[in-house]
Write a structure and sequence with these properties.
FAD; pyranose dehydrogenase (acceptor) activity; binds flavin-adenine dinucleotide; signal; 29 strands; flavin adenine dinucleotide binding; about 625 residues; eight-stranded mixed β-sheet; binds 2-acetamido-2-deoxy-beta-D-glucopyranose; pyranose dehydrogenase (acceptor)
Amino acid sequence: MHLVRCSIGLLLLAWSANAIVYKTFGALPQISFDYVIVGAGTAGNVLANRLTENSAVNVLVIEAGPSDEDVLPAIAPLLAPGLANSPYDWNYTTLPQEGMNNRIIPYNRGRLLGGSSSANYFVHQSGSSDDYDKLASITGDRGWSWTNMRRYVYEHENFVKPSHVENAEKRYVPEEHGNLGMLPISLPSNPVALDDLVISATRELSDKFPYNPDTSGGTNLLGIGWVQQSIANGTRSSSSTTYLRSANARPNLFILIETQALKLLPTGYSGVKPAFRGVLLSSENSTPGYVFATREVILSAGTIGTPQLLLLSGIGPQKDLERHGIRTIVDKPSVGRNFSDHVLVPYWYDTKGLDTLDDTFRQPALMQAAIGKWMDNRTGVIANGGVNQMGFFRFQPNSSIFDLTLDPASGPKAPHWQMLISNFWNSRYVPIPNEGRFITFCTTLISPVSRGIVELASSNPLDKPIIDPRYLTNDYDKQALRDAARTMRKFASAKVFSDYIISPAGGSAGETDEALDDHIQNTADMVFHAVGTSSMSPENANWGVVDSTLRVKGTDGLRVIDASVWPFVPSVHTQGPTYLVALRGADIILEEHKPKTWSDFLLYVRTTWSSCSSALWRLGGLDNRVEF
Ligand SMILES: Cc1cc2nc3c(=O)[nH]c(=O)nc-3n(C[C@H](O)[C@H](O)[C@H](O)COP(=O)(O)OP(=O)(O)OC[C@H]3O[C@@H](n4cnc5c(N)ncnc54)[C@H](O)[C@@H]3O)c2cc1C
Ligand SMILES: *[C@@H]1O[C@H](CO)[C@@H](O)[C@H](O)[C@H]1NC(C)=O
Ligand SMILES: *[C@@H]1O[C@H](CO)[C@@H](O)[C@H](O)[C@H]1NC(C)=O
Ligand SMILES: *[C@@H]1O[C@H](CO)[C@@H](O)[C@H](O)[C@H]1NC(C)=O
Ligand SMILES: *[C@@H]1O[C@H](CO)[C@@H](O)[C@H](O)[C@H]1NC(C)=O
Ligand SMILES: *[C@@H]1O[C@H](CO)[C@@H](O)[C@H](O)[C@H]1NC(C)=O
């Protein structure tokens, strides 16, 4: 990745020039805003955009990391893995994972404008209709059902039909997509020999591996089809390049970067509910200070950052908070619990194919040439993500796997597992052999039963939290990955591959349960899709963190809007479901804050003033100080 860093300076991509991006909170012209959003990530930037549409409302969005401007690996698709363990990453790691041979898994998260939408690997989907209907049924709020949520797909997407792909409309279903929305999305732009073979194999084996004309989800997620990507014209589409950039010129939007929120500040009571409308901040190289929200603080710090902030602020399981000497303000046993994520296992094959990416990754000169080509006109291998096709599958209803657990899928139309196909040696753990060309079929556990936890390591906000996903600690999850591997191999043995695939490589050929387990334990990785740590729950449940309007239960003036509110991991790659949750979240806020009568309006002025003035008053005598 040395190469990538050298090239950063060559790139000039202009942000629209109007933005005033503050780098230290001391430079802000005011300390009180209508809304304070913590985290300018995938969800946070959607909110920043929607809430500033009304020019009478001002919004501060705070981002711990730097700008994404001119950050080459955040712009050039195939270079995205170069963001891992860079200045744009949180560099988290998990505890040793018992289900993965006690390996420590690097848990990357974007730490720059756009958050993980600036760092992810581009697969873009909405989710299965069953995911949304299950969410509606859990929360008792029909607003989360697919019937209602589907309209946000059209608001969100700008599906760009690739001009150079013949019959592109056979690779997606145009009616399922928007083309007036914010986020440019498109199909893979770099054709490879494997493409035609995969599509032919879906015809040869149409019974078990049917072709899916559109992989975005909705009521038809099952089968194999073309990946849709948050890439257009060879360039990443993130929440920063879209939602944030298009709101940039608004004078009521304040963007504060390189500033970490350390904890929330209680600002008085609304009835018996403590209000949290203050945020303690620390900009790089300056002393901490506060900002306040007259209306709401919205946490969009993601599945790791959001529970960490709640816990640091005294909102969490009392016994854990006590251990760190943090006073419990709201006892919430579910904060940081029910972490759920997808797990992926690679199976490599030697191939006769000549156009795999292995040599590009092995040889700096080839990589430099590919980057040069991309610089010229945004084409070539760098313009694309790492996967052109993928598929989603269910286990047979009579499979003995369901003796281990009730069917964990979101519903009858939702998958149990996934297959991802790439034309290179794909693994973060097993280095590519020095010689040879490879393709990789990854199997992914889509409906996991194992649940993990995010908890504090200490009361210091600058310490990384403890992340223990407890991957593959459930028998169903282990069996599911063995069964998925066996089914995937039936696909790989389609006749159309006989002149292309030579044989399994890298010791991934084992067939017995023991051999499969061994391979899974030693090579499994996660797919960065964690959710659940600030889960929505039914109105009167004794578990969960937020209600169906995304307010933190038992508090006033505080919401969570990001991936962490999903009670279970959706059946797809999670950026799309995160965007859709944020779009509805914004609508919920806009609707609630519309003063409906004059007396509402006066009440609103009184309550926001009193919470703000009590906050200012408390500044003198904090009883819940942070130690450094
Ligand atoms: C490497 C990688 C690859 C992925 N690949 C895919 C993929 O191909 N397809 C897909 O759909 N999904 C993918 N995902 C997952 C997807 O990107 C996430 O589910 C989604 O972006 C989560 O959005 P979010 O808003 O919850 O969090 P984020 O987008 O991570 O935003 C959180 C933001 O808050 C900031 N923040 C956190 N704490 C603080 C604090 N205390 N103070 C100030 N700021 C703070 C962070 O820096 C970040 O900008 C991938 C993720 C990663 C990391
Ligand atoms: C992550 O690691 C990189 C490389 O060591 C470093 O530059 C960066 O500052 C680290 N990020 C954080 C948040 O510590
Ligand atoms: C892609 O590029 C074309 C031609 O340069 C341009 O007309 C189009 O607006 C671009 N689309 C996006 C989404 O950037
Ligand atoms: C985790 O979620 C389940 C519902 O899926 C719930 O019953 C359970 O109480 C939750 N656990 C915690 C600790 O929140
Ligand atoms: C991009 O440039 C290459 C030459 O480097 C050329 O062959 C190709 O047609 C160009 N593509 C587009 C879309 O302009
Ligand atoms: C399950 O049902 C399928 C047909 O739907 C049948 O082919 C298969 O043999 C059955 N398997 C078992 C274990 O009963």
